């Protein structure tokens, strides 16, 4: 494949890389007054990248740069969701940038750079490109976590994320070095070929365990979740909204590609590890969130639990299992974006509020907002007939078909436990005495994001569930 043809498959990544540099240079020369224009340019870049992914000419799958990256249906599915959620995160942050940050233009540029790194992650098919994609994403996310320089909490969140992120990178690199040492290869396909030849390559398995540990940190899965509550609480709320969506999908996609493309022949060795991580994540997410009074910390533990449910599909190690992971992550992203849109609307004259008790009596002070939040809480809890129920249904079915009945049963029980804190929020909104109302002029973008997410939570009323299931199945099949 010639260089020109190779680059044609990488047009979305090239657009984001060059475009982000252009936006940064423009922002430096024009100054902070350009923040609104830079944000609009960043959104247009991401939309253009989506169009390039959807309408790229050529073969449905291609390996680039001597097998370091792969463009296929799986990567395309993930990139569309990543770029879309990044664009929504920029739009949702418009008021925050105007009020709290006085129009700092770096924010949208950092999100575009993070999306560029995530795009590399979901296409990575080599240990070196895997690490390059992770670090490209992480460097931007470290800065975003500490973006509010005047806040001690934000600075602390950025520092914690950086230190623990460096630890996870060390685990990942050590595991990758062991895998390379015992296989002599860095590409996923060659590692898979060598792994299939020897079922007792214990050095390879140990290396895989270290890599799983590093990637579990990126998806905030237990017991590598310790950074999540503090970073979610301390980071600016628009940053937390972004953290809860696109980076989780990118890391889960990389996790899935690594295990299915390189180590599918030793699935019996890593399946119990993934199953135990999934169980621990669901348990910690279910029980730890009960005591939370800060809604951002509650959503952090909620995300830990939801990553556990997604890992159930990965633990199945099958085509249907991977498809269920993609369906679950897509639904989770819609749920969490809508929820954080509501959290961003929790604003009074003194500024933004973050306590769960601030939602008390919301049905009497802002009925539309209460209805949206109720729908999203029901979906996060997995109550039928919301989309959250169907997401869990798909991963549970995949687990049962793979013989992991105990894991599906545990997931159902822990889902019932986690429903307590979601329904407690609903109780506060509908049955507690009202507290002072939130400001009404929260911005049209937040309202559209919240209403859009709430409507999507009812698949029976929309047409998205069928195409989503079909696209996820096609994407999963491209890995096998």
UniProtKB/TrEMBL annotation:
Q: Superkingdom, according to UniProt?
A: Bacteria
Its EC number(s): 7.1.1.-
Q: Where is the NADH:quinone oxidoreductase/Mrp antiporter transmembrane domain?
A: 124-416
Q: Where are the transmembrane segments?
A: 14-31, 38-61, 73-93, 105-122, 159-182, 202-227, 270-291, 298-319, 325-346, 367-387, 393-423, 444-465
Q: Where in the cell is it found?
A: Cell membrane; Endomembrane system; Membrane
Determine if NAD is one of this entry's keywords.
Answer: yes
Print the keywords alphabetically. Cell membrane, Membrane, NAD, Quinone, Translocase, Transmembrane, Transmembrane helix, Transport, Ubiquinone
Keyword Transmembrane helix part of the UniProt annotation: yes
User: Per UniProt, what is the membrane topology?
Assistant: Multi-pass membrane protein
Give the catalytic activity. a quinone + NADH + 5 H(+)(in) = a quinol + NAD(+) + 4 H(+)(out)
Instruction: Say which family it is in.
Output: Belongs to the complex I subunit 2 family.
Q: According to its UniProt entry, what is the function of this protein?
A: NDH-1 shuttles electrons from NADH, via FMN and iron-sulfur (Fe-S) centers, to quinones in the respiratory chain. The immediate electron acceptor for the enzyme in this species is believed to be ubiquinone. Couples the redox reaction to proton translocation (for every two electrons transferred, four hydrogen ions are translocated across the cytoplasmic membrane), and thus conserves the redox energy in a proton gradient.
Quaternary structure? NDH-1 is composed of 14 different subunits. Subunits NuoA, H, J, K, L, M, N constitute the membrane sector of the complex.
Protein's recorded name: NADH-quinone oxidoreductase subunit N
UniProt source species: Hyphococcus lacteus
